[in-house]
Amino acid sequence: MDEGIAGYREYKLEALRSLAREIGVGIYVVSFKDLFGITLDEAVAVLRERGFEIKPCAVCGVFRRYALNRAARELGATRLATGHNLDDEIQVFVMNLIKAHVDGIVREGIATEPAGERMVPRIKPLYFIPEKEVLAYTLIKGIQTPFVECPYIVYALRHPVRHWLNEVEDEEPGSKYKVLAVKELLRITLPPPPKEMMLCRICGEPTSHPTCRACELKSYLFSVQSSPR
Fold this sequence. Notes:
It is a single chain. By secondary structure, the chain is mainly alpha-helical. The protein has one domain (9-226): Rossmann fold (3-Layer(aba) Sandwich). Helix content is 53%, strand content 3%. It is built from 10 helices and 4 strands; from the N terminus they run ααααβααβαααββα. The longest helix is centred in the first third of the chain and has 19 residues, at 56-74.
C-alpha cells in the first residue's frame, strides 16, 4: 500500500520489492493517489487547514481498508491476510474502550466472516504474536526492514496508548496477553450489533451506509482543497 507518505513509504516499498525479488514472489502495489486522487501527505495538508478536525490516521485507515478489500477482490483472493500482530490488536482494543466503540470490539478478531459477495474475508496470522517477536524473527532471518516510523503517528491516540501498554508490560510481564484474552472474551460474549450491508451509491463498493466512508472523506478533502483560502 502506497499512501504517499514522503520519507517513509518509499523506504518500506524499496525493502519490500527487494525481499520479493529475493524469495521470488510478485507484489501488487495500490496507491492512494491512483485510487482516490490524493496522497496522504496532500490530505494532511488539507486537514491541517481545518485544525485536524479529522485525524490523519482516520483518513488513512478508511482509505486503506477500502483499497485492500477492492484490490483483494480484483485479484481473485478468497482471503485477505494482514500483518496485524498482538500489539496492534490490543492497542485498537484499548482505543475502542476509550471511545466506547463496542462495535469495534466485537467485530475485530483473528478472522472475519463473509459480509457480502464484494467483501473479502480477512485473516490475521500474527494475531497472537507480539511485535517484539516479529522483529526478532526478521533479524534472525536477515530480513532488511527500514526502522522508520510513520510521521503522522504523533497525531493518533494509538501513540500514547502504545507507550502506556509497553510500560505496563515492562512492569507486569505478560500483561499484553491478558489484555488480548479480555478482548477475546468480550468479543465472544457480546453479540455483534446488526449491520446491513449495501453498495455505495457513488462507487459501488460495500458499505453499511448509502455513501461509503471513503467517498465521504474524499468529497470532504476535495471540497476543502478547492475552497477559497
